[in-house]
Amino acid sequence: MPAHAAAATASASSADATDEASSAAALLATFRRRKAERVREALSATSPAGSPDVDALRCLAIERYGLASNELRRLVWPLLTRVADKPEPPTPTQKQLKRHPDYNQMNLQKPTVRLPIYSQVVLDVERSLKRFPPGMDEQVRMSYQDQLVETIMRVLHANSHLHYYQGYHDIVITFLLVLDSRHAYNVVEAVSKSHLREHLYPSMAVTTELLKLVPLLLSKDPRGKRIADLIEKHEVPPAFSVAWVITWFGHVLDDLDAILRLYDFFLASHPLMPLYFSAALVLHKQDRLLSLPPEDIDFAVLHSCLANIPNSGAIQLETVISEACRLFILHPPDTVQSPSWFDELKLFEQPGGQRKPRSRLGLLMVKAQVSLPHLLRSRGALLILLAVLVALLAVLWAQLLS
């Protein structure tokens, strides 16, 4: 082919690719705009109680593209956590904080590092530069970091049964970047006492047990059996996913938009959904691992590959969210055939030792599992149907805790 003809062909191909990218971007913008309109409609609608229809908002947060924008997240996140109308409590003085036991309490989760909790929080916050948007003014960033330390210590001060863990600051940063100070504090406190509670115990023992759900879910899915067998064969502990779960992927993903989309999803779902998403992510990215020659796979290789999955290339986020919903419906927490440790975690235990009844939750989960197995095993299952089912379970879970 003559040089000028080859150049013309290359130029035409480049133009076609540019046109396709522009069309895809325009289509995505249209989808997001329509989704934002649906969220606004749900915000303006009222439930029988006369308040915004939180159940509808929960479904929308789970569905494709989540809540669509930070403007809408500022309105919806406080509703999902039931703190929209809650006033911000008085800020304790520095003197009051210093008198609180947690201020100088040694970090029980790291007994070999004799560092007071307050000092540990400050150190973690100072090392969190990558969590702030690129190009943010230094003074603005430093102001956020001051708010971050203050918010964490205020939550611990107000809730003596909660204990700081490294990675908690990644959660709090995300809420501070979206919400005003009043709603950020109230949402963080609410999430800390519900979705994150098991991670805020004096030690990470409960979290370590919860992580076992990830390989367990893989072993129950036909597509995950091979990777689950490899994990078992090489005795890789589920700790490879700890940073994913305890930070809601805020520590391991660089794309803030992706992190915010996951926060929409997790806030609207059952507290264990980050574990289901972790299993779905392994399923989504397992081909590279399974393509390795068996003789090249050992403990170190397998653990490293698993731990680095979030950064091992592009993630089709909506596909993984859909897969997580499918896993949750097929293998909900109350019906999964799990070891005895799962029953002993007392996920619904209230402060003071009281427990809420779980029978209605279990019944609904069993119904969801039995009535839709054929449909939900299809790779083409509609995310909207999954979103409705997952949201229903999350609503019932929230009612049991209220």
From TrEMBL:
SMART domains: TBC. It comes from the Eukaryota. GO terms for biological process: endoplasmic reticulum to Golgi vesicle-mediated transport. Keywords: GTPase activation, Membrane, Transmembrane, Transmembrane helix. GO terms for molecular function: GTPase activator activity. The keyword Membrane applies. Pfam families: RabGAP-TBC. The keyword Membrane applies. The chain crosses the membrane at residues 381-400. One of its GO terms (cellular component) is endoplasmic reticulum membrane. Residues 1-20 are annotated as: Disordered. Residues 67-270 form the Rab-GAP TBC domain. This is Rab-GAP TBC domain-containing protein.
